Write a sequence for this structure.
C-alpha cells in the first residue's frame, strides 16, 4: 500500500490549489481516504475525509465551503480542491489510508 501526494505550492491568499494523492497496492473504492495537514509547531489536523465509494464526505469547519474532496477510482487518485486559500491553510498536506501515510506536499499561502 502506497500513497503519494503532490500538487502543493506557493500561492497568494484567495488563490487555489488542487493537491492529489495517487494510491497503489489496494482498491481505492474499498477504503476511506483522509487529507490531513500540519503547520510548523502545530499538531497534525484532519482536513477532509471521503469514505469508501464516496458514500460520505466530511470537512473540518475551517475549510467548509472552500475545499472539496473527490476520488477518481479509475486513476486511483483522491483530490483536494482548495479554493480561496488563506495564510492559515499553510502547512504540509498528507493523505492517509488506515495506517498508511503519504510523504506530504507543502502548501504555502502568502502575499
Amino acid at each position: 500500500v502506497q500513497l503519494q501526494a503532490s500538487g502543493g505550492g506557493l500561492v497568494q491568499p484567495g488563490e487555489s490549489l488542487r493537491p492529489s494523492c495517487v494510491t497503489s497496492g489496494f482498491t481505492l473504492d474499498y477504503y476511506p481516504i483522509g487529507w490531513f495537514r500540519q503547520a510548523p509547531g502545530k499538531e497534525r489536523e484532519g482536513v477532509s475525509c471521503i469514505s469508501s465509494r464516496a458514500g460520505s464526505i466530511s470537512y473540518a469547519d475551517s475549510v467548509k465551503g472552500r475545499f472539496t474532496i473527490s476520488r477518481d477510482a479509475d486513476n486511483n487518485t483522491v483530490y483536494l480542491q482548495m479554493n480561496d486559500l488563506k495564510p492559515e491553510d499553510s502547512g504540509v498536506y498528507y493523505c492517509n489510508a488506515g495506517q498508511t501515510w503519504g510523504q506530504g506536499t507543502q502548501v504555502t499561502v502568502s502575499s
User: Anything to note?
Assistant: The chain is about 0% helix and 50% strand. The CA atoms of residues 49 and 58 lie 5 Å apart. The two ends are 38 Å apart (CA to CA). The mean pLDDT is 94.
